[in-house]
Amino acid sequence: MGISTTNPATGETVREFDALTESEVEEKVARAAAAAADHARTSFADRAQILHRAADILDADSESLASTMTTEMGKTITAAKAEIAKCAKGLRYYADNAADMLADDIADADAVNASRAFHRFQPLGVILAVMPWNFPLWQVIRFAAPGLMAGNVGLLKHASNVPQTALYLEDLFRRAGLVDGGFQTLLISSKQVEAILTDARVAAATLTGSEGAGRSIGETAGGQLKKVVLELGGSDPFVVLPSADLEKAAKVATTARCQNNGQSCIAAKRFIVHTDVYDEFARLFVENMAAQKVGDPTDDDTDVGPLATEQGRQDVVDLVDDAVSKGASVLTGGQVPDGPGWFYPPTVIADITTDMDIYGEEVFGPVASLYRASDVDDALRIANDTDFGLGSNVWTTDSSEIEQFIDDLEAGQVFVNGMTTSYPEISFGGIKNSGHGRELAKFGIHEFCNVKTVWVA
Question: Cα 36 to chain center, whole Å?
Fold first, then answer.
């Protein structure tokens, strides 16, 4: 896929971009290395001013930037504006809290026969960020905000279908007053990433994307003994037990599955329902999914826009068709609509068996898999029967069930009676094939720091 803006609502290519040459990449890496030395010497107060200015610029640019994001990857204009507001919040959160998060961690000096003993958090230097298209602004900001506050600098290799958003991000930090070279966008192909990651001037990398991309980056970084944070795919369970508020659960389940047109790693994808309430939940859920308005993402009242790429829609079609051919039931949706653009309707599939591809693979579109669990233990078994472990949801008012699922769900996140989402204030990340490392909160800012132990006689 070339580096271009192609409107997924129409299939029309709006702008095309040339990939950087090797010499242009070299120039940018050299600028980043020089910037890293300068930025590491700045104060927390100076860094915070930059992030606050960036947040103010985002607020001012919201209308035009939202339009660009919608044009590039098809998210609804309402969702685009909400993402921009979330990014501004994230910038301000780290601007206001990073100094405390990175204050010296005082150890017990007497216990180690010292007059002083502590841990100091220091930046690693140049961090390469390989980011996806589905949240083209937020995915980057949640790395950039803590990274820049820690004193690191960034090189961004964004997805090839959101180049204008990627270029905006570089310009954003330039306008906010960041040191020259402190945050640069690299319009490059995936094939050019390895050479950058193996460059001695690049200290570490973070990637949000597919399992395959994560393995590739992980293998390359491992060969160089470089730190990586990987946030990969998810097939998040949404468990509904008998004591749940079914109407609320079904409404939230619809939002959870259809958010961002169904293209979110932490979107609920597998809906596992206790047999005692299965029929009623299924009825409510199907009604809500069928009522979602699919259409022009620039309209304020559209619920679900197009999928971001033609291949992405075909991947969804293939998974649904495979399931149906092996006996699955489509309760709503399941048919590609006529007309231009890469639209796909909110869909609910039931009667899923382990031989169907949809059982084990992540569906990156508004398709919900519905499972009937015979009891609580069976629901937990189905929830954990996946190679992924990113987010999870459980709906119950039974305190013992809540504790059981908090302890036993194999996931990086457990949300009880609510939809999985990301907040600057709490950590984000997964286990198993969903990756490793954490973003956000204090854990995210510590990932790309040297935790230096200091002992004074």
Answer: 26
Asked if residues 41 and 201 have their Cβ atoms less than 8 Å apart, the reply is: no
User: Which residue, among 84, 5, 77, 83, has the nearest Cα to 305 in the 3D structure?
Assistant: 77
Task: Specify burial of residue 357 (Cβ count, 10 A radius: 0-12, 13-18, 19+).
Answer: middle
With H, G, I as helix, E, B as strand and everything else as coil, classify residue 328: coil
pLDDT in tens, 194-214: 999 999 999 999 999 999 999
Q: Could you read off the pLDDT of 80-92 as tens digits, one per residue?
A: 999 999 999 999 9
Residue 320 CA neighbour count, 13 Å, CB half: 25
231 is catalytic: yes
Identify the active-site residue in 87, 258, 265, 449: 265
pLDDT top residue among 1 and 136 = 136
Backbone angles phi, psi at 426, to 5 degrees: -130, 155
Whether residue 214 contacts residue 232, with contact meaning beta carbons closer than 8 Å, is answered with: yes
Cα 220 to Cα 230: distance, rounded to the nearest angstrom: 13
| Catalytic residue list contains 258 | no
What is the DSSP annotation of 327-383? T-EEEE--SPPSSSS-----EEEES--TTSHHHHS---SSEEEEEEESSHHHHHHHH
Catalytic member of 72, 170, 231, 439:
231
- pTM here is 0.97
